[in-house]
């Protein structure tokens, strides 16, 4: 659950001004921001967009994404329907693949690429967990939405296995149940 931070903290230099006398930690949701989001989140489509945006933010933070990275939010902002699980997975996996390709082209070794994939997994898991929490807090979670979120998460996990195979030359562990020597 996201809780507000009150007062001046050690991270005061990292805070952004949101009003004449108001400061809040950068990247954290305050009670006021949550209230604003509650007012604007009225449909499951809005809830999915919150989930996707939060997950993209965490992934970019985890992988050191550049600000020039294309956000899926722009693509889906004008659609009447929320993005499908495969749409969300495509955006996320596209970001991860581009980042891995950039590092591989720059001469990254297998250890560096493995570390980057681990960061991607951690960012995705953190983003999905935070987004689910936000949707639950907003009272928007239902069985259908939960199923769609799970489907997107599973598609991303499958895609990460494919990227692991592509960039690291590894077969998934399930395919190699025994080791021979």
From TrEMBL:
One Pfam family of this chain: DUF5610
Highest lineage ranks of the organism?
Answer: Bacteria, Pseudomonadati, Pseudomonadota, Gammaproteobacteria, Pseudomonadales
* Organism superkingdom: Bacteria
Boundaries of every DUF5610 domain copy? 55-162
Q: Which residues does the annotated region (Disordered) include?
A: 1-26
Query: What is this protein's name?
Result: DUF5610 domain-containing protein
Q: Which organism is it from?
A: Marinobacter antarcticus
What InterPro entries does this protein's entry cite? Answer: DUF5610
């Amino acid at each position: 659950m996201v809780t507000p931070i009150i007062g001046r903290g050690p991270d005061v230099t990292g805070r952004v001004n949101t009003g004449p006398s108001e400061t809040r930690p950068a990247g954290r949701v305050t009670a006021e921001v949550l209230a604003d989001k509650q007012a604007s989140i009225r449909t499951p489509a809005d809830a999915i967009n919150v989930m996707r945006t939060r997950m993209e933010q965490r992934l970019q933070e985890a992988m050191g994404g550049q600000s020039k990275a294309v956000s899926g939010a722009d693509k889906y902002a004008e659609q009447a329907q929320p993005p499908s699980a495969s749409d969300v997975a495509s955006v996320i996996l596209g970001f991860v693949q581009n980042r891995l390709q950039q590092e591989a082209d720059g001469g990254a070794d297998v250890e560096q690429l493995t570390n980057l994939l681990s960061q991607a997994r951690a960012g995705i898991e953190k983003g999905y967990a935070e987004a689910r929490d936000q949707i639950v807090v907003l009272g928007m979670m239902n069985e259908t939405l939960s199923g769609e979120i799970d489907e997107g998460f599973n598609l991303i996990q499958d895609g990460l296995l494919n990227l692991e195979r592509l960039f690291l030359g590894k077969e998934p562990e399930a395919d190699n149940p025994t080791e021979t020597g």
